[in-house]
Design goal:
The chain folds into 2 domains: 15-124; 126-136 and 156-368 and 419-525, Kinesin motor domain (Kinesin). The chain is 50% helix and 17% strand. The protein contains 12 helices and 15 strands. The strands form 3 sheets. Strands 1, 5, 6, 7, 8, 9, 12, 13, 14 and 15 form a 10-stranded mixed β-sheet that branches. The protein starts with 8 loop residues before the first helix and ends with a helix. Bound molecules: adenosine-5'-diphosphate and magnesium ion.
Length: 542
């Protein structure tokens, strides 16, 4: 204001105008600067944003590419799996088809095998030997009075083993004795753990031969206490000779074979048939009919004799034959017969059996002329049976006259006409008496007589098998009642199975070796037969 003082109004106004102009200029330059700065900043931000977006989109592209690859790979995998699945399906179909073919072929082969089975058995010879080694049992320890503790312990030591399914190994070294280390070969060897079931499974195929017209014999051989009765019948009841029917899994060969025979008959056999049973005991070279009844219908043991018929077959006239309809009827009958058995306890075993038990099942089939033969599966058998039938038929008429009333009541009542033919086959099941020697049993007097009869009949059996082995013209069946009785199911084309029973303890070493020797000799019969058949085939070829 001092500067303005003394100036004119115009001057002042001019001054003011210049001043405001100046300010205006100043303000606009600041705005311009600010504007520039903002513009610059914005540009930078935009640039950053742009590059960020670029990165983002690149990243997105990359990730989506990876995803795409993954999806593609997955799709490809699925396609491959689908293809594989299809291949599998085709393969499964092929397999199914070939399985069906194989099954069909198997069925055919099974039929063929069945037909070949009997031929094979014939070629292999008709005698086979199985050997069963029973477990060590508590009574194996009781060696007797005059024997030291030490020897007693040795006595119960195991010396006989099943080395494998076909080999028995006997291994023993005793002070003062030559050591034993010997093997024996048989068709089948069972160790102490094998069940009654397993034993029978190997016996059962033999029974099919019965229906093909062959006689079959199954016999248990071994010393007293070695398990013959256990194997053939089953465990015996305490203080009773009958065997227990309750425990089915424990049943032995005789009841099982009967069941199997009835099963086979109901499945396979053409025509009408019936099954008759006889139970006899061979004691001191005498045959006792255990099913015979007195005039009051009460059972009593009657002596019978065995003779040879005109056709060269063995026959026991007047022998009681009971017709049975099923296995349980049969078991009751056998048990009844067993009550009659004569036994004599020896030192070996309280229930030692001193006689041979022979249970015989006779299967008779009646077929009417035109049908006969055609219903049997293989022609050879039917031809053979046709031949057989023509000569067994007249025998029937004689039989029905000479046998007891129980036989007359059997279905033989069917009128015999020209057209009707009859075939008989026989299954003989034998529980032999103990094979131990006299010294072992420690018996005297009457029991000694028993023992020597047993030894004689068993050596007669060995002689018969030996004569068959050597193909001798004369087979000494008639040297004992036992072999005479068994003639038809031991010789000829009959099938024989010897079941050797062995006690494993050292105490029984001598008897076990004797039994194994018997079995080995019996098997040589088989080898003899093989040779014979081969020669036959060759000479036929010429
Ligand atoms: P054997 O008839 O040869 O004289 P047993 O069959 O009476 O002999 O057998 C003698 C004893 O041994 C019997 O008490 C019997 O139950 C038993 N036994 C035999 N074999 C066997 C076995 N494999 N398993 C179990 N016990 C057996
Ligand atoms: Mg016995």
């Amino acid at each position: 204001y001092q500067r303005l003082a003394g100036r004119s109004t115009n001057e002042v106004l001019e001054l003011y105008a210049a001043r405001s102009q100046q300010r205006k200029l100043q303000r606009s330059s600041v705005v311009t600067q600010l504007h520039e700065a903002i513009k610059k900043r914005l540009k930078q931000d935009l640039k950053n944003l742009h590059s960020f977006v670029l990165d983002l989109s690149k990243d997105f592209q990359r990730q989506s590419k990876t995803c795409l690859y993954q999806v593609l790979a997955a799709v490809q995998g699925i396609q491959l799996q689908n293809e594989a699945m299809q291949i599998f399906q085709i393969k499964a179909f092929d397999l199914e088809q070939s399985l069906q073919e194989v099954t069909e072929r198997y069925e055919k082969e099974k039929q063929k095998r069945k037909a070949l089975y009997n031929n094979l058995i014939e070629l292999r010879g008709n005698i086979r030997v199985h050997c069963r080694i029973r477990p060590l049992l508590p009574f194996d320890d009781s060696a007797g009075h005059s024997i030291s503790q030490d020897r007693q312990r040795n006595f119960s030591e195991k010396v006989a083993y099943a080395a494998d399914d076909e080999t028995v190994l006997v291994k023993c070294s005793r002070p003062g004795h030559a050591s034993v280390n010997k093997t024996f070969q048989f068709e089948r060897v069972y160790n102490d753990l094998e069940s009654q079931d397993a034993i029978f499974a190997d016996v059962a195929p033999l029974l099919t031969s019965l229906l093909d017209g062959y006689n079959v014999c199954i016999m248990a051989y071994g010393q007293t206490g070695s398990g013959k009765t256990y194997t053939m019948l089953g465990p015996q009841l305490e203080g009773n000779l009958a065997f227990s029917i309750e425990e089915e899994s424990e049943l032995g060969i005789i009841p099982r074979a009967t069941q199997e025979v009835f099963r086979l008959i109901s499945e396979k056999l053409p025509g009408s048939y019936w099954v008759e049973v006889s139970v006899v005991e061979v004691y001191n070279n005498e045959i006792f009919d255990l099913l015979a009844k007195d005039s009051y219908g009460k059972e009593f043991g009657v002596k019978r004799d065995v003779l040879t018929t005109r056709e060269g077959k063995s026959d026991v006239p007047l022998l009681t034959q009971e017709t049975v309809e099923n296995a349980s009827e049969f078991l009751q009958l056998v048990n009844k017969g067993l009550q009659m058995r004569v036994t004599h306890p020896t030192l070996v075993h309280a229930h030692s059996s001193r006689s041979h038990l022979v249970v015989t099942l006779t299967i008779t089939t009646v077929v009417f002329g035109d049908n006969f033969g055609t219903l049997w599966e293989d022609e050879q058998t039917s031809q053979r049976l046709n031949k057989e039938a023509s000569y067994t038929f007249p025998q029937k008429t004689r039989d029905s006259k000479s046998t007891s009333s129980s036989r007359a009541a059997s279905p033989v009542q069917l009128e015999a006409t020209e057209k009707m033919k009859q075939v008989k086959t026989r299954l003989q099941l034998v529980d032999l008496a103990g094979s131990e020697c006299v010294g072992m049993s420690g018996v005297t007097g009457a029991a000694l007589r028993e023992t020597s009869f047993i030894n004689r009949s068993l050596s007669a059996l060995a002689d018969v098998l030996g004569a068959i082995a050597e193909q001798r013209a004369h087979i000494p069946y008639r040297n004992s009642k036992l072999t005479h009785l068994l003639q038809d199911s031991v010789g000829g084309d009959a099938k024989l199975l010897v079941m050797l029973c062995i006690s494993p303890g050292q105490k029984y070493l001598t008897e076990s070796m004797q039994s194994l020797g018997f079995g080995t000799r019996a098997r040589q019969v088989q080898r003899g037969q093989v040779k014979k058949k081969k020669i036959q085939v060759l000479s036929k070829g010429k």
